[in-house]
Amino acid sequence: MSGHSTYQPKSAVTRWLDTRLPVGRLVWDSFVDYPTPRNLNYWWTFGGILSVCLAIQIVTGIVLAMHYTPSASAAFASVEHIMRNVNYGWLIRYMHANGASMFFIAVYIHMIRGLYYGSYKAPREVLWILGCVIYLLMMATAFMGYVLPWGQMSFHGAVVITNLLGAFPIVGDTITTLLWGGFAVDEPTLKRFFSLHYLLPFMIAGVVILHVWALHVVGQNNPTGVEPKSKADTLPFTPYATVKDGFAISLFLILFAIFVFYMPNALGHADNYIPANPLVTPAHIVPEWYFLPFYAILRAVPDKLMGVLAMFGAIGCLFALPWLDTSKVRSMRYRPQAKLYFYIFLVVCLILGFCGAKLPDDPVLGHFKTFILIDSDLNSWVWLSRFATLYYFAYFLVIMPVLGLTEKPLPVPETIASPALSHPASVPAAATAAPEMKG
After folding, report:
1. Residue 197 annotated as binding?
2. Binding positions for a ubiquinone (predicted)?
3. CA distances from residue 343 to 225, 226, 315, 350, 392 in whole angstroms, order as listed
4. Is 156 labelled as part of a ligand binding site?
5. Which of 60, 91, 200, 428 has the fewest CB atoms within 10 Å around its CB?
6. Do residues 17 and 25 touch, judged by C-beta distance below 8 A?
């Protein structure tokens, strides 16, 4: 999509390098002269934000690994050593711990934008699938990293989640034993998780390179969902996109800093400041907040195996999304019915996250039934999770395929430039001034 390269080496050294290793040409074509749709809004800045998050996680993770001890008897103490004795260890650890949450906040917004504007539709199916692979690797990395402090919630969370693999017939017990390194969650498990937690971010970086490569092959989507047809539809990446990305990244880093310096433990769990004790189980075992919707789906299904399949199926739907949506119109700007169902889907995801944080048998309406029609057995978080889970899968497997065939979309612009250049912000000030101001 970027067309013929316009890179021109300026000196003998850059000309010599360009004929042997064209790094300068690659940077120029990818981040300077790369044509981007002229109507991109700030929802398109989260790709750059995610790149910054990944860099922060890798750098802080390398520093933490220098001081961490992957031993069941010393892991908790080594984390406390980092916090108390290592120079700026508290800062590095809080940046890494809160950086995981910031990473997931950014990736969820990035995915929501892709869903709303149809960024998964042809010819961007591979681009979307690579993004889903990154998300899956992020979840695995975050889970293993959460175990490393070896606190109460870390240990018992690892026991609960790894035991789920045993639900698979024939191979389940074998996989669980290999993951544990024995017959229970113990030091071999911690060493495996530490090794994989250190490795997976570099795998994420590799898939990110493929993701960016695929993006530069098919080009960026845009709010209208219309492909660029001429130079009037695009602008160079620098300075237009880089300035917008830089501003958004600055705001995001301010939010990041607020959590790191003023409420570093707000997104964590207090039980993780208690050393792991296999003989004492926390009253309520919950994963990190970014796993809560899938945890609610898992608990919503009474059967263990079906619950595990539903949890993984919720992620699998994202991989199949390019073929589940049958509409020929990309952007939901021009699909009013799809927009309504999408907003309901977002609310359902929030409900699932809220349900995942609650005890399943606790009453939703308290001990007082405000509606006579609600039966006491239905007045629980697990039943609310079941209704929300039903809509989650219905949205992907029923609503999107059917709606794409039955919905009548609004007229879509012929080009990107037509609505962008007709926007009041693009009209020169002299043209919009009052008659008496024009002389």
Report:
1. yes
2. 216
3. 19, 23, 19, 11, 12
4. no
5. 428
6. no
Q: Which amino acid is at 130?
A: L
Q: Buried (b) or exposed (e) across 155-194, using 16+ Cβ within 10 A?
A: bbbbbbbbebbbbeeeebeeebeebbbeeebebebbebbb
Signed CA dihedral, 331, 333, 339, 343: sign only? positive
Q: Which two tokens stand for residue 430?
A: 């002299």
Give the whole-angstrom CA distance, residue 182 versus residue 162: 12
The span from the CA of 317 to the CA of 271, in Å, is 33
Q: Is 96 annotated as a binding residue?
A: yes
Return the bridge partners of 236, or none: 35
Residues 6+ apart with CB under 8 A from 67: 78, 81, 82, 86, 89
DSSP, collapsed to helix, strand or coil, labels residue 159 as helix
Q: pLDDT digits over 150-188, tens only? A: 999 999 999 999 999 999 999 999 999 999 999 999 999
**What's the CA gap between 7 and 15, in Å, rounded?**
11
Average pLDDT of each block of 10 consecutive residues along the chain (439 residues)? 77 94 92 94 97 98 97 96 97 98 98 98 97 98 96 95 92 93 94 97 97 95 94 93 97 98 94 94 91 96 94 97 96 97 98 92 63 57 94 98 96 86 54 40
Q: How far apart are the first and last CA of the chain?
A: 46
| Start-end of CATH 1.20.810.10 domains in the chain | 23-285
Contacts of 304 (CB under 8 A, 6+ apart): 164, 167
What is the distance between the alpha carbons of residues 130 and 386, in angstroms, rounded to a whole number? 30
Rounded distance, CA 318 to CA 328, Å? 18
What is the rounded (10 degree) CA torsion for 402, 408, 413, 414? 80
- Please state which CATH class domain 23-285 belongs to: mainly alpha
Q: 101 with 259: CB under 8 angstroms? A: yes
* Cis-peptide, bond into residue 239, ω within 30° of zero: yes
Known binder of ligand: residue 284?
no
The pLDDT score that the predictor gives to residue 425 is 54
Helix (H) or strand (E) holding 36: strand 35-37
- Per-residue model confidence (pLDDT) at position 430: 39
216 is in an annotated binding site: yes
Angle, alpha carbons 361-362-363 (nearest 5°): 115
